[in-house]
Write a structure and sequence with these properties.
The protein has 150 residues and is mainly α. The chain has 7 helices and 2 strands, in the order H-H-H-E-E-H-H-H-H.
Length: 150
C-alpha cells in the first residue's frame, strides 16, 4: 500500500519505550527521568527520541511533564500496557511460555524416572492445551481469578 507511512513502532517508538521503562523502573532516576537521560539510554538521536516520546504521550503509553512551549522535559510515568509491552509486567503469553520452560527444566532435573515421567506428562498436557487456551488460563491466574469447577 503506497500511501502508508514507514513503520516507526519497531524502529523508533518501541526502543524508546523500552529505554523509558528501564529508567522509570530504576530507583536511580526516582521514577521520573529527564528527556536528556532517555536519549543516551535509547541509543537513538535526540530528534527521533523527541518524536517517539511525543507519540508515546499522545497514545497514553507515557505520561510527561512539559514546558510552556509544550516540549517534553521529563517522563513522569508509564501505563500498565507499556509495562507489559516492555516486559516489566507479565503477559498471559509470556507466563504460558515460562510455564513450559519450567516444566521442561523440572523434567530434565528430576531425581527419578517416575518424577521425570510426571513432569513430561504435565508438559505434554500443556502442549496439547495449546498457547491460546494456555494464555487464557494464565490471564485468569495473573488477574487473580481462577474459575471454579461447578
Amino acid at each position: 500500500m503506497p500511501d502508508l507511512l514507514p513503520d516507526s513502532w519497531f524502529t523508533r517508538d518501541l526502543p524508546v519505550l523500552r529505554a523509558v521503562a528501564r529508567l522509570v523502573d530504576s530507583p536511580a532516576h526516582g521514577g521520573a527521568p529527564y528527556l536528556g537521560q532517555v536519549v543516551p539510554a535509547s541509543g537513538l538521536p535526540r530528534p527521533q527520541v523527541v518524536a517517539a516520546v511525543r507519540g508515546l504521550v499522545d497514545t497514553g503509553y507515557v505520561a510527561a511533564l512539559t514546558n510552556v512551549a509544550g516540549d517534553v522535559v521529563r517522563i513522569t510515568g508509564i501505563s500498565g500496557e507499556a509495562r507489559r509491552l516492555t516486559g516489566l509486567w507479565p503477559t498471559p503469553q509470556s507466563e504460558w511460555e515460562r510455564l513450559g520452560e519450567q516444566l521442561a527444566a523440572r523434567a530434565a532435573g528430576a531425581a527419578t524416572e517416575v518424577e521425570r515421567d510426571r513432569w513430561r506428562a504435565l508438559a505434554d498436557a500443556a502442549t496439547a492445551v495449546g498457547p491460546d487456551a494456555g494464555a487464557l488460563l494464565m490471564s485468569a491466574l495473573i488477574g487473580g481469578y481462577v474459575p471454579r469447577a461447578h
